[in-house]
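Table S7 (text form). Paired inputs.
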Amino acid sequence: MTSPLISPGEPFGTHDSADLVVDRVYRGGPQPNWGADPLGRLLPVGLQGGIRVAGGQRTPRLVALATSGANLDWPDTIDTATGTVTYYGDNRHPGSELHDTPKGGNRVLRATFDWAHADATARRQVPPYFLFAKAGPGRDIRFRGVLAPGAPELTADEDLVAVWRSQHGLRFQNYRARFTVLDIATATRAWIDDILSGNPLSPHCPAPWRNWITGRRYQGLAAARIEYRSRAEQLPADPAGQQMIAAIRAHFTSRPSRFESFAAHLWQMADGHVGSYEVTRASVDGGRDAVGEYRIGPAADPVTVTFALEAKLYDPAGGGVGVADVARLISRLRHRQFGVLVTTSYLARQAYHEVRTDQHPVVILAAADIVDLLRAKGYPTQSAVSQWLAETFPIT
């Protein structure tokens, strides 16, 4: 089978009758304007906007979400390993109330998640969501799947959250929505036509969508994790991300020991189960830059395990974290303890392979992970990272 990454894609002139196949590219048209937009040909949702609705805001029939992946302030993400999607709403600039947006996308999100957490009768009002991502230059797009609002592990307080952002000194709110990509390889044109006619649970309806509507059962489209990540996958691919890592390295170069505190703080930011930690003194660290607690179970009666953290302020151009570095951490892990490796570089292939093949309990936060984390926490640029470091981790 030809890989969707190298296939020629669906020609522009056939979009109005085409099925939607996961990861297939749909070509844009030749026009030098919005008439070349393929999404408006695939679905009757208009030609512009990130949240596009068919059927109106009050009674949406289906919703198309479009993401370029290039907006650093609003980092939409797709986790193919878990089948979850994080998507930000359409109030992306100061001056408007959370729901007061030109196309009403945030109102549709609010209604969708209200219906999703009600009974089966209310869930019938939830429109199927279709996710599209920009695919290379021009207006080509890639279909990423059919989404159901929420995820099995998320509550009503977690799957749709109003977050604050600041732009030019002005604060405003926008939604951060979480979805699950359902195990639907192809959304047929017959089903799409039934949705638009008001019958989404027709005989053409895929079982995962029917099961979610009737019983709120998530059948996610999750891909198996690879054994280890390549160098390219561990490093930020975009210049802005590379500049963020460079800013971190520049900040701590004169005091590398301060990076250990920063690395432990990053780990705490990355996982809400991380409890208290202590940065060890260099003379007595025993190969561990920090040690701390990790809580498992209910908040009223958690089980606590411990972790040992190693921080490596490395330059990606000078090489990655090697076998000797990782072995030093692993050899010092105590009983019922796991390791955390935080680096501004990457884990070399052989070291990564040995960690995963031998099933060592080591969490890896590489440069790309640090960039993704900081963007998700509201520090999307080099200047924002530098200012935060200067205030939170001053070098004196």
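Next pair, protein 2 of 2.
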Amino acid sequence: MKKLEKPVREPWREIFAGGSAEAENQQFLSLAADMLRMQESNRERATVSHAMRTLHAKIIFGVTNARLIVNSNLPARFNVGYFNAGMILPTVVRLSNASGLVQPDASPDMRGMALRISLPSGSFHDLLATNYPVSHARNARQFVDFARIASGDRATLVQRLTEHFGADETSRMLSNMSKGLRPCASFALERFWSRGAVLWGDAGPVRFNFRPALADSADTSEAVSSADGLTAEIAARLMKADVTYHMALQEFSSETQTPIEDGAVEWMEDVTPSIDVATLVIPKNDRAPIDPEMTGAVDSLAFNPWNAPAEFRPLGNLMRARKIVYAASAKGWQKR
């Protein structure tokens, strides 16, 4: 029998807007100013005295006592830095709605998961994910322009988007958004994707995702209908049992099928299958699963994918923009 050879992967690289990292950073500073204006607009619309996060304003649930358990059979190539087979890593978890406005949980929206992993060195590593596999925007400029245009008159939205992006891109982005913005039954039933790539040491670029352990179960919960229904739902679950997710990695294959710079292209499972590497456990608490003090502490944290060891640095235009844009946003809302 012929021995199966390991698939050959193309070399990967990053391409900086403007031709250099310095030129791209100047663009990001301009985009950060645009996002801060939208943050202020959200504050005014919400009629509150303090700035809110530009995105993911409403926390659904936050805990400081979760743990990430690295698989004992971790493939050797993923054994990078602190991420070693069998490690149990204390982890903070923030679950949120994606909107920049605090709105009822029953509203169609995307949902977010943010992790802060405590490292043996005393530092930490942030992992951010959303419950849709790709961004509607290919890059940071497209993301901010779309958000700016979408904040205007809804009656002329399609017309203004088409004038700016063209008919094909407008159709693609609106289709993406309509699939991502949807009701939710439970965070325990949602899968979350990094959407952008990160470096994973010598293994190269990967995207990560978190698959709920209940994904293949008979749980058929209906979408919540109350303003804070998702918080109540996850609290009720944790009164009975842990909430668990399987963490997996998808590896870079080629610029065509697994691009680093285009955040709107999904890395398909038939091209680069998800490989399980760890388990995230949010522990059962049958006494007081919703601790206001703990939730407040988690909500005060400024998560950023660039809070990462060098061997896990984010890759791609959208991810590079987050370093500057998220930091600028946090300076505003953390003053509250």
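Confidence is low (pLDDT under 50) at residues 1-5.
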